[in-house]
Amino acid sequence: MSQNPANFLRSQDVNDEHLFQLCKQSVALNDYPYAHDCKNNVLIYNASSLADHMQTERINVLSELHRAISDNGPGVIVIKGAYSDPALLSRFNKLFESILIQEREQKTGGDHFATAGANGRIWNALQKVALQAPADFIEYYKNPALGWVADAWLGPYWQMTSQVNVVHPGANAQHPHRDYHLGFQSNAICESYPLSIHKLSSALTLQGAVAHTDMPLASGPTKLLPFSHQYDLGYLAWRDPDVVKLFEQEYVQLALQQGDLLFFNPALIHAAGSNQTADLHRTANLLQISSSFSKPMESINREAMCQTLYGTLCHKWQTGQLDEEALKAVVACTADGYSFPTNLDLDPPYNEAAPQTQQQHLLLAIQQNTPAIEFFAILESLRSKRLA
Ligand SMILES: [Fe+2]
């Protein structure tokens, strides 16, 4: 049986001229009616006006955000002013510092993707913050802005993960790269996947970042190559010396302010910049958000998170400190939102075709004020029903 060899591409098929042509495009701001501005081909949105539009024109907003991240757009956006309480972010920064010290003392953690000591890296910061500072976790993740672009790019039931990166003064820039999934594989492995999976890889995750400090250009905010995600062979291209040269000539950088959000297509070629300040420890909470259909990069103990957060969530809900939108936002970042994989012998469909999810149980338990002991038993039975 004959095969179409064009479905399996090799590193030597990379054509940097093709990539260059794609990156010469420019964004027409008029094509993005909800955007507030466009700088260096990065679309800029304003969090408060997006929030208003999400109330009345949700599908149109989601559609525009999707287009911006997709092959029809530049692949990168900024949402300005998503966090307006500097005290919350500075409490988070203190917690990050103490986790980093703790992990250094215990000789765990560390950044596998940078020179030792140049960066402070916290893997699975999502779970660590939930377990160590539940009230602040709720305050932070109740922000619906975190979910807008995820809803737009991945649809519902996405899986939030977070990895903190503190880039110290003097730290060098990263090598340009693409991100998870295929961005974490060698060229040889990428060559063994058909082109359709290369395209799919970028549809399965969304890269985001919350600026926890101001990020002036001198501090090295992420270097971005708008439109580079549109290049089909990009997962085989980013190590190519000509592509690295092109990246260094053409990348753009945007100064961010504390509380801004950056989101980009994981196939966009990018790199953390070098921090040339004397004293600014550039701090970002990196959000890697996975489609419900995908294997996320990190394993998360969501049951432990649900248990730890449950009492505070119930209290905040009952005392009116969380409205329904905020409650749903924080539940989406906490519990598993998808029904599968499960054991269909033990866990039959609940409504229509899908068994009940951890998110549905958590939301219902909070709204019904279920005693913690009963809710924990529900979580445990959900886990055992899913085992084969
Ligand atoms: Fe990256």
UniProtKB/TrEMBL annotation:
<dbReference type="Pfam" id="PF05721">
    <property type="entry name" value="PhyH"/>
</dbReference>
<dbReference type="InterPro" id="IPR008775">
    <property type="entry name" value="Phytyl_CoA_dOase-like"/>
</dbReference>
<dbReference type="GO" id="GO:0048244">
    <property type="term" value="F:phytanoyl-CoA dioxygenase activity"/>
</dbReference>
<protein>
    <recommendedName>
        <fullName>Phytanoyl-CoA dioxygenase</fullName>
    </recommendedName>
</protein>
<dbReference type="GO" id="GO:0001561">
    <property type="term" value="P:fatty acid alpha-oxidation"/>
</dbReference>
<dbReference type="InterPro" id="IPR047128">
    <property type="entry name" value="PhyH"/>
</dbReference>
